[in-house]
UniProtKB/TrEMBL annotation, chain A:
It comes from Micromonospora saelicesensis. Belongs to the prokaryotic molybdopterin-containing oxidoreductase family. It is found in: Cell envelope. This is Formate dehydrogenase. GO terms for molecular function: 4 iron, 4 sulfur cluster binding; electron transfer activity; molybdenum ion binding; oxidoreductase activity. InterPro entries: Mopterin_OxRdtase_4Fe-4S_dom (IPR006963). Its main location: other. The keyword Iron applies. It comes from the Bacteria. Residues 44-100 form the 4Fe-4S Mo/W bis-MGD-type domain. GO terms for biological process: anaerobic respiration. The keyword rRNA processing does not apply. Keywords: 4Fe-4S, Iron, Iron-sulfur, Metal-binding, Oxidoreductase.
Length: 189, 865
């Protein structure tokens, strides 16, 4: 190593002689930090998304590396948010990658004291059985004057404001065809 | 707004930087207050008194934007002489029926109208939250009206309004709200000065306004001010609702709500909508003016979207398959029915009522009395674990070995693990691309409901029961893809948009819909989102490359229109009110409306157009009537029908209040929705005895770092770390009075529950002088519960259940309580404490009729009487 390159390897020299007098940019870089790249640069793909918290609708860019979400950033193109995210939106990656997320079906039998495991298909079929049974037991064809009711008041559902329009559409369509009226979501409260 | 919608608040700061003056009204000083030009501390639950004061200030000083008001509102319209005001009736309007505490709205009608066109009585409207249908259009009213454009007729709306609000003086505002007169006048002056051809003002609210037993009337008062000042349909104007979930607007437009169908069509009612014709006529009101006259088209397209080929003209498009309402089937009625054992199964889809709904104990006891419960969520939330971790375990009210509810927890896909659209708070649909596959068993709701429907239809395939035809004939063949057999969200969006049956061509606008079954459309107000076969909600042209309106980012309903009623941004002749406020205008050379936004008007209808007498539908709307979804084309300062608690807002005290209503003999909203159930106990309010048992006012709201019931924030480590504990903000004065120490513990008690919290002694909450006495208010966040990384008692446990009569929203922004130092008791001691408070306060349950404070001698109402 020559004297000159030794000098130039010294941050304070670069700070005094270069274009970074405050030493907060290029002058402060080491070989290690120079080699660092942003996760957003090395991502395999990026999805254009929207923040899942409040209804402002801030744009998000979801970066993916090796099939995993590697970073979520505000979308600077969004005329709503101009790249900004609040503390919740900025924590979206922690939300979707949280170790507390449940990723398997859990089942608690009547009078049970513990959770049990259950296969997803089994759970889906058990729920279908229960929906049909509840519907049969509580079905109302007509009112006291013989006017049609076509319904069950034995089934309720709550939730939808965190879901997609397409999902709410199918939920309402299926429940309506089933005769289930008691469908509500956060918009009521 | 800076706390709960911080990124939206950047635009308030932009406006402030350009000279806008920002006022913040809140019971508690927040980050918004810190950045506002002026902050007004208000007693929770008194905003109508404050806003009514502004209405009076405008009218008394004739500061309204007169050209706008005369041309575009119903100020000049004359009301029948049968109408009697709260001024004449001590806080009631004419038509009040003591038997069921509802109004007969007949006497509120416009002069010359034989009757209001509402087909359902007021009680049915309340039970079915019929007011929600008006989210896309006004209540039905005839278009031919008698008007006095000099505004001098004693029964014109302008004069009625003036008289109704006459007692909302600055002195009364101070007396009711605790806002000093000079602070009130500063607000009123700034608001009114910012009005006219060159200037507009904007009003922003959130659930601090809606979650009241008079919530709809809060918004009405704000809308009256904005109409009087010419701030509707113009850039920089409006009444802006800041909604709190990513697609809560979407879940209202495409409603998972009991009383609505997509596009604000009403769910059929057994008595009022026996046939397709009766149903659509009740919406369209034959002869009615405005766009809603096409209701049959919207209804038939929905039925075709639901039942496809099976829906034909011969069978009334399967209208007979529709379930029918008989009354209130809302979420709070459901919870009481669960407690009473009437409901078997319950789905929870990304909602956590054990923490997020009023009266948490009722919610949990209801869930503990089901046959089965399906919880679909990202995390193990309180509503999934009530049977093992609820506070009622400690009190012995729930025991796992005695709790019969079978619980299925199914993990849900997150927002990055599925594709689809959210509708944000300005009606803007934004498509999200899918980034990754969901982990393990996690699936989208689209997957769950598609496959649940598929399995149910397979089980019933051989059924011959008539009740199963609606399921078997359902159009349910969506394309699927991928290893999880995920249905195509884009195919569903295309069905929502609508298409031509014969050619499959997506519709470009709801005006292309036909009522003969040749088109299909699942939600008429969303038609156009898939115009030209292109997913318009996925458009992402950078904001920096577009005009301020940014029409090529996402897609807004209706018709990609960003400001509703924007015809009002031009004067009656079609010219911009001013260069500064130019937005949409009439281009006389081309004979069409043009501008920066999609005009909210028939494109070629000139400003000079006048309808033939008795013209109906769209043809009945004149060229200078901007409010095209109102039967009379006017913005309503006065609602001749459709608002169940009165044609104009009136200040009533919250259902639980430490003070008597200083304005009228009526204490609380006389038409509020009440549930008489043993679990729904009530704190007394004056003049009832024992109101001093609960002397303090409490209110709740959000923290920046948490979201609603905490399911998406107390489970996320950076957010949990930022706000790790349940706390209560109290003023130094109250802390001294009640012996509370900063960072120590306190507990709050109501007739429902006692919850504990760490004490934050702060000037952010301040005692208010109200009607000659000091009222202490405390504030709590409502995010906490017993699951997640950080836990704490739930503030919503403190509330009872009382609802607004128009939309059945609960009063959960204000209540009364006692505040005590130290932690709350545990186990049976906790039950005993609450029972003792109930005993001392008279063991009240909610009841009709409303409390009438006839013994009050000092109200202005009585002085006149």
């Amino acid at each position: 190593m020559g004297v000159r390159s030794w000098f130039e390897g010294w941050p304070v020299y670069r700070q005094l002689t270069g274009t970074d007098p405050l030493g907060r940019g290029a002058a402060a870089k080491s070989d290690g930090s120079r080699a660092l790249t942003a996760r957003t640069d090395t991502a395999d793909s990026m999805a254009r998304s929207v923040c899942p918290y409040c209804a402002v609708g801030c744009g998000q860019r979801v970066f993916v590396k090796d099939g995993q979400v590697s970073q979520i950033e505000g979308d600077p193109d969004s005329p709503i948010s101009r790249g900004r995210l609040c503390p919740k939106g900025a924590a979206s990656k922690s939300l979707v990658t949280s170790p507390l997320r449940q990723t398997t079906v859990r089942y608690r039998r009547p009078y049970g004291t513990e959770w049990e495991d259950l296969d997803l298909d089994t759970a889906l079929n058990m729920i279908a059985d229960r929906v049909l049974a509840a519907r049969d037991e509580t079905w109302e064809d007509v009112d006291a004057e013989g006017r049609p009711l076509n319904r069950t008041l034995g089934i309720s559902s709550l939730g939808g404001a965190t879901l997609d329009n397409e999902e709410n559409y199918l939920i309402k369509k299926l429940f309506t065809a089933m005769g289930a009226l008691q469908i509500e979501n956060q918009a009521r409260i | 707004m800076a706390e709960a919608h911080p990124v939206g608040f950047q635009w308030v700061m932009e406006a402030k930087r350009r000279g806008a003056k920002v006022f913040h009204v809140d019971p508690r000083f927040t980050r918004t207050s810190a950045l506002a030009d002026s902050y007004l501390a208000i007693r929770a639950g008194t905003d109508i008194a404050l806003l009514g004061g502004v209405v009076r200030y405008i009218l008394d000083n004739e500061l309204d934007f007169r050209e706008y008001v005369v041309a575009y509102t119903n100020a000049a319209t004359i009301v029948t002489e049968e109408y009697a005001d709260t001024e004449d009736m001590h806080g009631l309007f004419s038509g009040f029926n003591d038997d069921n505490a509802t109004y007969d709205q007949a006497s509120w009608r416009y002069e010359g109208h034989s009757q209001n066109q509402t087909t359902r009585d007021s009680e049915t409207q309340r039970e079915t939250a019929a007011g929600l249908e008006n989210e896309s259009h006004g209540a039905p009213v005839g278009g031919e009206t008698e008007r006095d454009e000099t505004l001098q007729h004693p029964r014109c709306v302008y004069q009625i309004l003036k008289r109704h609000f006459a007692r909302y003086t600055p002195e009364m505002v101070e007396r009711v709200c605790g806002i000093p007169q000079e602070k009130f006048l500063e607000l009123a002056q700034a608001w009114t000065e910012n009005s006219g051809r060159d200037r507009t003002g904007m009003l922003v609210y959130s659930v601090g306004w809606t979650q009241h037993s008079v919530g709809v009337q809060y918004i009405r008062t704000g809308a009256i001010i904005q109409l009087l000042l010419g701030n509707v349909g113009r850039p920089g104007g409006g009444v802006m609702a800041l909604r709190g979930h990513a697609s809560i607007q979407g879940s209202t437009d495409i409603p998972t709500l009991f009383n609505l169908l997509p596009g604000y069509l009403p769910m059929p009612h057994h008595a009022n909508h026996p046939t397709l014709d009766a149903w659509v006529d009740s919406i369209a009101h034959p002869g009615q003016k405005g766009f809603w006259g096409n209701a049959r088209t919207y209804g038939v397209n929905l039925l075709k979207a639901y039942w496809g080929d099976a829906a034909t003209a011969d069978n009334d498009y399967c209208y007979g398959y529709m379930p029918r309402m008989t009354g209130d089937h809302g979420t709070y009625q459901q919870v009481l029915d669960m407690i009473d054992g009437k409901i078997k199964g319950y789905f929870l889809l990304g909602q956590n009522p054990a923490v997020g709904s009023a009266h948490g104990r009722a919610q949990r006891l209801g869930m503990a009395n089901l046959d089965w419960l399906v919880v679909r969520d990202l995390f193990m939330i309180e509503s999934a674990t009530f049977w093992q971790n609820a506070p009622e375990i400690e009190t012995g009210e729930i025991a796992p070995e005695r709790c019969r509810t079978e619980v299925f927890f199914l993990p849900a896909a997150s927002h990055v693990e599925k594709e689809g659209t959210f509708t944000q708070t300005q009606r803007l649909l934004q498509w999200r691309e899918k980034a990754v596959e969901p982990p393990g068993d996690a699936r989208s709701e689209l997957w769950f409901f598609y496959h649940l429907g598929r399995i149910i239809r397979e089980r019933l395939a051989a059924s011959t029961k008539p009740r199963d035809r609606a399921l078997l004939d359902l159009a349910w063949d969506y394309p699927t893809h991928g290893p999880n057999v995920e249905p195509s969200a884009e195919a569903v969006l295309r069905e929502i948009n609508g298409y031509d049956v014969a050619t499959g061509r997506p519709l470009a606008s709801f005006t292309e819909m036909k009522d003969d079954g040749s088109t299909v459309g699942g939600c008429w107000i969303y038609t156009g989102v898939y115009a030209d076969g292109v997913n318009q909600a996925a458009r992402r042209k950078p904001g920096s490359e577009q005009s301020l309106v940014a029409p090529e980012w996402g897609w807004a309903w209706p018709a990609n229109r960003r400001i509703l009623y924007n015809r009002a941004s031009a004067d009656p002749d079609g010219n911009p009110w001013s260069e500064r406020k130019r937005y949409v205008w009439w281009d006389a050379d081309k004979s069409e409306w043009t501008g920066y936004d999609v005009p909210d008007f028939e494109k070629t209808k000139p400003p000079s157009y006048r309808p033939e007498r008795d013209a109906s539908g769209v043809a009945g709307i004149a060229g200078d009537d901007p409010f095209i979804l109102q039967g009379d084309g006017k913005g309503w300062l006065y609602a001749p029908t459709g608002v169940l608690d009165g044609p104009m807002p009136t200040h009533y005290e919250p259902v639980e209040s430490p003070v008597r209503n200083p304005l009228y003999r009526q204490q609380a909203n006389p038409t509020r929705k009440v549930y008489t159930h043993p679990i729904n106990t009530l704190n007394p309010s004056p003049p009832q005895e024992h109101s001093q048992v609960f002397p303090y006012v409490f209110t709740v709201s959000r923290l920046t770092e948490h979201h609603t019931a905490g399911g998406m924030s107390r489970t996320v480590s950076p957010l949990a770390e930022l706000q790790p504990e349940m706390f209560v903000e109290v003023s130094p004065e109250l802390a001294a009075l009640r012996g509370l120490s900063h960072l120590g513990w306190a507990h709050l008690v109501t007739s429902r529950a006692a919850v504990e919290a760490k004490v934050l002694v702060t000037d952010r909450v301040t005692p208010l002088r109200v009607d000659g006495r000091i009222i202490h208010q405390v504030w709590l966040p409502y995010h906490f519960g017993y699951e997640g990384l950080v836990t704490g008692d739930s503030a919503n446990d403190l509330f009872g259940i009382t609802l607004d009569p128009n939309v059945l929203i609960q009063e959960s922004k204000v209540g009364t309580c006692d505040v005590r130092p130290g932690r709350r008791p545990r186990g049976q001691d906790l039950v005993d404490l609450v029972v003792d408070y109930r005993r001392r306060s008279g063991n009240l349950v909610h009841r009709y009729p409303p409390m009438v404070t006839t013994d009050v001698a000092d109200t202005s109402s009585d002085q006149e009487a």
